[in-house]
Amino acid sequence: MRAAAALILALALAGCDSAPKVVFADASITLPDDPIDLPEGPGRDAVIENCTACHSPSTMLQQPKVSAEKWESIVGKMRKLYKAPVDEAAVPAIVAYMMHVQSLPEASR
Amino acid sequence: MNETRLSRRALIAGAGTAALAAPALAKLAAGGMIDLVLPGGPSLRPTTPAFPGKGEMIVQRIRPPLLETPMEVFREGIITPNDRMFVRWNWDMPTQVKAAEHRVAVGGAVKNAVSLTLNDIAAAGETVEVVAINQCAGNGRGLSSPRVTGTQWGNGAMGCAKWTGVRLKDVLAKAGLAAGARRVRFAGLDVPLTDGAPQFIKSIPMDIALRDDVLVAWGMNDAPLSILHGFPLRIVVPGWFSTYWVKMLSTIEVLTGEDDSYYVADSYRIPAQPITPETKDFPTVPVTAMPPRAFITSHGDGEVVALGKPLVLDGIAMGGDAALERVDLVGKGWEIPCTLGPDEGPFAFRRWSVKLPQVAGDFESIGVRARNVNGAVQPEALAWNPSGYARNVIERMTLRAQ
Question: What are the structural domains, with CATH classification, of chain A?
Answer without folding.
Answer: 32-108 (1.10.760.10)
